[in-house]
Structures are given as C-alpha cells and as structure tokens.
Amino acid sequence: MPSKRLTREESRARTRDLLLDAAAALFAERGVNGTSVEQIAERAGFTRGAFYGNFADKHELVRELLHRRTEQELVEVRALGGDAEGYARLREWNRERAEHLEEWLALRLELLLHALRHPEARPALAQREGLARDAHAQALTARFRERGVAPPADPQQLALIVHALEDGLLLQRMLAPERLPADVVVDAVELLDRLWSR
C-alpha cells in the first residue's frame, strides 16, 4: 500500500523537526559555537539551502529549539500533578531522564552559554525559564490549596527555589552518579513540600 504523500506544510514541518533534532544532538556533542549550519544540515540529511529555507540563521534555530523544548517539558511537568501518584510519575520521569542526563545537561548548558555570549538570545531563554517557574508555581499553589495550607512565601519565589535546586542537583548527580540516586530531585522536592506544608 503506497504511503500517503505529505502536504507541503507537513513536509516543511518534518524538515524543521529533523533539523532541530540534528542541531540538538550536535550542540550537545560539540557546542553551539562548535557546530556549523552545514553540519546541522548534513546530520539531518539536507542541504545548506534546506536549512536557510527554514531558519534565517543559527540564532533563530536556537530560539526555536528553546521554544520546542520548553513546550515539551511543560506538557510533561503539568501531567505530573502534586499528589502521591504525581510524585510516583515524577520519580519515573526523573529516572528516565537520568538515562540521558549527560546529553540533556550538555544541551541545557550549551544553550545557557549561547545566551551568555549572545545577549540578544537572553530574552528567549529568560522566557523559557519563566514558563518553567510558572509551571512549578501552579503545581505548588494547587498542592497548598489541596492541603488547606497557606504558602510560607509567594509561590513564584518557592518555584524559583525548586527550579534552581533541580539544576544544581542534576549537576551534582552527573558528577557523582554512584552517590546520588536518579530521583534525587524528587527526594528534595518532597522534603521541601513537607517543610512548606506544616
């Protein structure tokens, strides 16, 4: 049975996805600055012209990659919830992420370095971080409401603490995986949850 022919829009979306996937892998391997447009196009199986038919330059691709990863992570975080079942899902999600932790961290740190070196990229990264904090704040607010407990501080401030703690703990786990469990972040969040809900 012949496969369905893609529409022009579907073909373009598929090309963009393949270019973004190739860029994410190369950025994790070589860094944003160490990766050329030609290398991204070649890894994705396209020409340089196909790259420029979809992105104005590498900076636009980085912004799109940030946006795509943000949307993906928000869907995952919102699906976790804040109850006991949510913590079980959160543990499973962290264990799955731990299998690819080095790649995930390499890309995250490369995007941060890119924003450090290119101030014009910072607003996109700041927006991404803000969305992640908002998702944490919403989950925390729902958790406090369910328990009938007043938050000890502004949920946005608490979300910033959780978000920063997650980054730090994942770096520590990457450096000493034999000493820290894959779900170390969940242990920390559960501890804070108990302390903040007293």
Care to describe what's here?
The chain has helices at 8-30, 37-44, 48-52, 58-78, 84-98, 101-117, 122-147, 155-175, 184-196. By secondary structure, the chain is an all-alpha fold. α4 runs parallel beside α7 (122-147). The protein is elongated. The model has no long low-confidence stretch (mean pLDDT 86).
Secondary structure elements and pairings:
Layout: H1 8-30, H2 37-44, H3 48-52, H4 58-78, H5 84-98, H6 101-117, H7 122-147, H8 155-175, H9 184-196
Helix pairs in contact: 1-2, 1-6, 4-7, 5-9, 7-8, 8-9
* Count of distinct strands: 0
Largest sheet: none
Task: Give the count of structural domains.
Answer: 2
- Morphology call: elongated
- In DSSP terms, counting alpha (H) and pi (I) runs of 4 or more, how many helices? 9
Given as residue ranges, the uncertain stretches (5+ residues, pLDDT < 50) are none
Could you report the average pLDDT, rounded to the nearest whole number?
Answer: 86
- Which topology of the largest domain does CATH recognise? Tetracycline Repressor, domain 2
- Top CATH class of the largest domain: Mainly Alpha
The SSE order reads HHHHHHHHH
Estimate the helix proportion, in percent. Answer: over 70%
What is the radius of gyration? Answer: 19 Å
Distance between the termini: 62 Å
Name of the CATH architecture of the largest domain: Orthogonal Bundle
% residues in beta strands: under 5%
Q: Structural class per helix/strand content?
A: mainly alpha
